[in-house]
TrEMBL record:
It is an enzyme of class 2 (transferase). The active site is at 80. Belongs to the methyltransferase superfamily. L-isoaspartyl/D-aspartyl protein methyltransferase family. This is Protein-L-isoaspartate O-methyltransferase. It comes from Halorhodospira halochloris.
Length: 230
């Protein structure tokens, strides 16, 4: 685990403050709602304050950017509910700040942007080709340069940069994909929704020298993880 070198961690500045429905005050109300739902980690709450969620959402839906709900991002996919993004980030940081995190399911890039504020390097894999350049552009707009995006099948992970100290799944498989467990470092943690369409268990999986330990953190609803590139 790294100490979390701040100099390597991107910061969102300029051009992204927003006005009215997307203002800093609107964002602060969302942060307060998430804290009231039990997310205590100040680093995570700060990241939520910093990242302009409206940048990761189509213009037509921007007035709802700071509602605590998932929203459509096209291609039948959704940007996750802010509470879920916050809770998963908090769980990932619990054992210590991971040096490198792998995310499966880049989608809009919002979860990756939150992670970019919290850890030195974020690697993220998305299976739908059209979402990749869009997420890249949004992360650049948010001035975040420590996120690396790959168009690929997340069931295979991203072996080149493994092992990862943290792995987060934002699409749900029926069971934990073996290649992802292989790419998790000893001492590392995976946070993953596991189950069928409509309802999954959010599992926290710790890889220790003795083996795998897991516990259930919440009931959640994610889009299913789909095999192959789209
Ligand atoms: N983290 C995203 C959530 C997007 S929804 C955000 O913050 O916006 C889940 C995403 O997972 C979708 O974009 C979907 O295309 C992607 N996905 C589903 N199966 C996948 C797979 N096997 N590999 C990579 N991405 C996958």
């Amino acid at each position: 685990m790294a100490s979390g070198d701040k100099s390597m961690i991107g910061r969102a500045r300029g051009g992204s403050e927003g006005v009215g429905m997307t203002s800093r005050r609107t964002r602060e109300r969302l942060v307060e709602a998430i804290a009231a739902q039990g997310v205590n980690d100040a680093r995570v709450l700060d990241a939520l304050r910093e990242v302009p969620r409206h940048l990761f959402i189509d213009e037509a839906l921007q007035s709802r950017a700071y509602d605590n709900t998932p929203l459509p991002i096209g291609h039948g996919q959704t940007i996750s509910q802010p509470w879920v993004v916050a809770r998963m980030s908090e769980l990932l940081l619990e054992p210590g700040v991971p040096e490198r995190v792998l995310e499966i399911g880049t989608g809009s890039g919002y979860q990756a942007a939150i992670l970019a504020h919290l850890v030195p390097q974020v690697y993220t894999v998305e299976r739908i080709g059209a979402l990749v350049p869009q997420a890249r552009q949004r992360l650049r707009q948010a001035r975040l340069y420590n996120v690396h995006i790959r168009h690929g099948d997340g069931y295979q992970g991203w072996p080149e940069y493994s092992p990862y100290d943290g792995i987060i799944l934002t699409a749900a498989p029926h069971s934990i994909p073996e290649p992802l467990l292989d790419q998790l470092a000893v001492g590392g943690r995976m946070v993953a929704p596991i189950g069928g369409a409509g309802y999954q268990e959010l599992l926290v999986i710790d890889k220790t020298a003795e083996g795998i330990e897991q516990h259930r953190a919440a009931g959640v609803t994610f889009v299913p993880m789909v095999h192959g590139r789209g």
